[in-house]
Amino acid sequence: MRDNCCQASTLPSQDVADEPSYDDDAPSASGDGAQFGLSDSEFETLLAKALQQSPIYHEYRTVFQAAPKIMTEWRQRYRGNPALWKRLFQKDRVIKEFVEAAPIIDAVKRLVDDAVLVNGQQFTIFDLACGRGYLSMTLSHLLPPEKVKKLVLVDKQWPMHNMTPKPHHISWTHIYGSHKKVEDQSIPCYFDTWPIELHTSKMDLKSSQQIRNMEDFHLRDKGPIILVAVHLCGTLSLKAVQLFNNNPEIRFFCLKPCCLPGMVHAKRHEIFRLGNHSFDSKLVCMAGKWKKNVWKGPPRTTTKAYFERWADNLFLGIDSTDTAKIQKSIMVQRNGGYQNEFLFAERLPETNSVWDALRSDERVE
Fewer CB in 10 Å around end: N or C, the chain? Predict the structure, then answer.
């Protein structure tokens, strides 16, 4: 996930302005929690009230109600390291990330809860372009550990496994603690505290060789696999669809596309191909970017039409052979946001609870 890709709020702006502020570094009367400004119960209540403001709260009530306790457990994990917690947890940002991932969290939970696995099988979940990994951190606490072996957090900004994180990396300190090389080796080991193991994987999804390595070493004959991808920028969404199409071990696929492909593809007159589906890059490529929280580019009405066309073509590119798939518009973004398209696919047989919840008047095959 890339933090500068989606600037629109997921919550009504007037409600955000009314939220109380807090300071995790402020002193408190409690001994063990002296570095935290609120007690854990106060913190959990604060998060619950903020999350209840989401327009999709009632549609995904189960995961929304679980989130405050999960985030409070994160907080407890890093107690004693307020600098790490302050760097990791910015309330509005984390809530935004959660709200925009909630439909995927809900679908994955339904699938895993109802899955019948045999011969000791467990799911492995790959979280593409994960950023700091908030989605996987949530799923680690939410899913049954007996059904999920591990979550793999894939991003090109992680350090190599034998390196200490540098300023240009995403630091993995909150994932591993002293289990791996980190900036401060005196901190606790966090790796063993996750209910389901979290593993980072440094990978550039635009590299064909690295994709092949991922398929050879992590996907083939390693099933069942769940592939989740939230806020994939530009052509990374193409790579995610190709991964699902090319690897039958991937049982379930969830994609929320993000920003559009850049104009470089249109200038090269590229044709994007996904399985048997192809489309002209000119239909979906757009110039423009955010600069200091200000959109520099075409009007939102124009970019919205391009984005919807982008999502439509990604959906058509998902292989329909022995696969159920659906495209849904879920209003996770408000106040001018339009990146509200979600794509789901499952290799047959369907998991009834997942598809009963997903199916409505949206496009289904």
Answer: C
* Nearest in space to 307 (alpha carbons), one of 329, 325, 275: 329
Please state, in angstroms and rounded to a whole number, the distance separating the CA atoms of residues 215 and 238: 16
**Residue 253: helix, strand or coil by DSSP?**
strand
The whole-angstrom separation of Cα 147 and Cα 121 is: 8
Residues 6+ apart with CB under 8 A from 290: 4, 5, 7, 296
Tell me if residue 95 falls in helix, strand or coil.
Answer: helix
Pull the structure tokens for residue 219.
């996907």
Do residues 47 and 68 make contact, with C-beta atoms less than 8 angstroms apart?
A: yes
Question: What does DSSP say about strands 250-257 and 225-232: parallel, antiparallel, or unpaired?
Answer: parallel
Measured distance CA(42)–CA(343) in Å, rounded: 36
Selection from 251, 199, 205 nearest residue 226 by Cα: 251
134-192 tens-digit pLDDT: 999 999 999 999 999 999 999 999 999 888 899 999 999 999 999 988 878 889 999 99
